[in-house]
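[Meeting: bench + compute handoff]

Bench side (C.D.) handed over the final construct sequence. Compute side (W.E.) agreed to return the predicted structure before the next meeting so the bench team could plan truncations. Sequence as handed over:
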Amino acid sequence: MSPRLVRAYLYVLMGGLFLQGVGSLLFRLAPSLPAHSPLVVRGVFGIDMWHSWLHILWGAAGVLLLALRPSPVMATRLALVFGVFYTTLGVLGVGLHHPFGLQLGNFENSFHLTAGPLTLLVGILAARSNSVAQAHPDPAR
């Protein structure tokens, strides 16, 4: 898997989480916003305050990490850690009622159980690519 593709995927994912978290926080702080928004917008931004902060923190930390540490190894580690975290959050959301006080419903759990395993797979494929690249260095470099 191309390091450029891994980084692009992570930038989109982390940037999206950040924006979704900020939007959700605004929805909580300005209650008139949801009342005047279409159903799909209310659905995307209708998460609880702590869940909003979780998205903001993951998104900001992920984007900063990708920007400040542009190595393929760091992107791989981010993908693996995030993948494990979100997969675990999805499993807990299905198995427990509001784990850690987060109001996780079917929509949130389905997102976590999609983004988590997908990002974990990206991380595993990137780790395999990194190990192949180290075992067989490109003579053109």
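W.E. noted at the follow-up: The chain has one domain: 3-135. C.D. will use this when planning the next construct.
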